[in-house]
Amino acid sequence: MRVQLFGTCLVDALFPEVGEATVKLLRHFGAEVDYPAGQTCCGQPAFNAGYRAEAAAAARHFLDIFAATEGPIVTPSGSCAAMVKHHYPALLQDEPGMSGKAAAVAGRIYELSQFLVGVLRAHERGFAGRGRITYHSSCHLTRSLGVREEPLALLAALRGAEIVPLSDATRCCGFGGMFMAKLPEISCALADEKAGAILASGADTVTGCDSGCLMNIADGLKKRGSQVRVAHLAQLLAEGL
Amino acid sequence: MSAEQTSLQFRANAARAINDPQLRAALRNATDTFGQRRESAFATLPDLEALRERASAIRLEVLNHLPAYLEQFTANASAAGAIVHRAADAAAARELVAGLLKARGVTMVAKSKSMVSEEIHLNPYLEAAGIEVVETDLGEYIIQLEHETPSHIIVPAIHKSRQQVGRLFAERLGIPYSDDPQVLTRTARAVLRDKFLAAGAGLSGANFGIAASGSLALFTNEGNGRMVTTLPPLHIAVLSIEKLLPSLRELPTFIRLLPRSATGQAITSYLSLITGTRRPGEATGAEELHIVLLDNGRSEILKGACREMLKCIRCGACMNVCPVYRTVGGHAYGWTYPGPMGLILTNLLAGMETSYPLVDASTLCGACVEVCPVKIPLVELILELRRRRVRDGFSGSATDLGMRLFARAASAPKLFNWGERLARICWPAVRRIGGKNVAGRLPRPAAKPFHARMK
Amino acid sequence: MTSEVLELFIENAGKAAAHVVRLAKVEVLGQALAELLPSGAAVYCPGKTALEQAAVTVPGKRVPEYAAAEICVEEVEAGIAETGSLVCSSAGGRAVQASLLPDRHVALLPAAKIFATLDDYFAAVAAAPPANLTLITGPSRTADIELTLAIGVHGPARLDILVVGEAPAGIAGEGS
Fold first, then answer.
1. B7-298 carries CATH number 3.80.30.20
2. B287 CB within 8 Å of a chain C CB
3. Would you call C118 and B252 a contact, using CB atoms and an 8 Å cutoff?
4. Fold of the C3-164 domain
């Protein structure tokens, strides 16, 4: 099968290794990966800040690119998948031509772990794993998309790794997109609490499915002088192939 | 802490709160405890989802026919002997209440907890009119002694440690210092008992008005709500217009949801249903009952896109799970209502101009949406308020410009990629401008972005 | 009213920190009260209903005013099994606040008057509620200081419920 990859702006600029791991994984499990050229950003930063017109501009561009393709669209970000799935249709509902595209594309998009488990059944194979890993469940991934079990199923497939529980795993890490920039004091305080929980878990690695969260968590851990590795689930799985 | 609204200083308020270790510890203890208690309480209730759906439907039914329900409530309450007043705004409500008390020569009023009375700043107005107001709810009593405002809508003194309360009581009541909550509670009981018996009037809120019977429903635990509504000859109840239920048959749904959502109790120690005045030959109830129905902007809200906020039953569950509230507490929000419901309601009631920073006080994590017993789409409402903030020009010209550039770049890949390259090249300058608290927390952009690796 | 409903009432009242005693017949009421109440305490009892009159042999000194009493012994209007609640009503000239002021409330509840659910109870009173109906579930309490539970605030610090008599078989609340 052929999938369309949406890298996301964070991955593109700051965490390209997550994109590479995603491609490697998808290809390993039999998918042909297309990366539509010219993709930029899903528009979430503008949308969340109340800039609907600007978000719509980004959405139109996204739809122009992806509506010209077919098949599943996969992205290594729960919040971006949620943006496309839940907000694009309403954002463009008054634009004839666009609203149909939005609905169609919204029906095609998957977050990576959702696709790996639900479609490719990747969790049924084993991966090589090591160390003690703990998992932060991102808010949009769990509450917006309802993706709760899939990352856990993939982690369970990391043979050789010990998965340790994270206390208050579902509590927000404080990234919140623009929130990190607008209310940095609160963002840092939440990242610090999350770091504290990670340290208390005894893990040497913390993972998750959203680069924004992981970035904020990494800063929290760094401020505590911690050596705990922060890695996107895609990276851990790709390393274990 | 004065009653002045400080929502415009939210970020500074928050920063101060973050650096207050005692407050942080109190908030962590409270929100963790609330979380556990709520979870235990709902574990034994079958089909929570159906209950929430039903509660939401009942509240929407009331909102969709509010004028008719208000008429019905007024007619039935009046038939039972109450006098029902409509107050268009805070000033009207304050004048009304003060007028009623002064006309009867009341010099001291015993008050049980009412968030809407905080909203209209009733206490300072009555005090200025020469009427002593005694808060009898333990948490409200504590903050009254401290000259503070509530920091949570259910547990007003949650930001205080037992040691702080112990020192307060020792200083202000002259008792030997104790930080044992049982001892402090018994002290309050003794001090306030005299007040209940001497008060010329009782002032209360109400959790719900029941339209079909004209009744007031009060959920309380301490017994003070029962005291102020039955001992003094005059009872004045203030409630906002949207707090109605159609009939007593709808009340059980809320009995099952409200205490569990608020404190993790299956039911509060007391649920008082007050229907009119003491009838001739009866031995319970006020001789005179005045019910003040407050609008204060709600009719307007009802017409707009945020009307679902009026479903709120003031349980406090949303603030108990909010990561922002947990970190900064209630006072940072700068007005009467904190947390998710607070930032929305403050914006809707007090206006964008005095509260726009509050709409940022959310990571949109959605924890609140999961626990709201009446299924208010809180995150959607916050997004709507953010849209309004931009529309009304309160977002700041720098952000407006930044977002316009973003829109341009997001639609033009060459521009977008060029921007990435520029950011990487000028990273030290970006860091300096962005500050260590923001840009300083981001890694340096990659030398080879992902799109370049996928060519 | 089935014994299941009665058992549920007793269980839920207990969870709310009420002390519940089951008495099969009104004849043993005096004895039960004698065991329960400290001698010498100032007791208020309205003495209006049959149960209250059977309770007239309580130890301690009877006081005519509830405001001066340490203990209020009174029959209550109903019970609700779903929550373990008592219902006190102002109907018939009763003083609901009589059980509020003293430090201890001893409630006499006829078993036949226990409703199974909140819906059952409110359906029964929806048509014409009296001036005051109060559901009482356990003693008064607060958690306003550090969320630590303190029992006995403005209302009673202790609630005893004596459930008296047999209930007729059938749907809860019927015929009461």
1. no
2. no
3. yes
4. Rossmann fold (3.40.50)
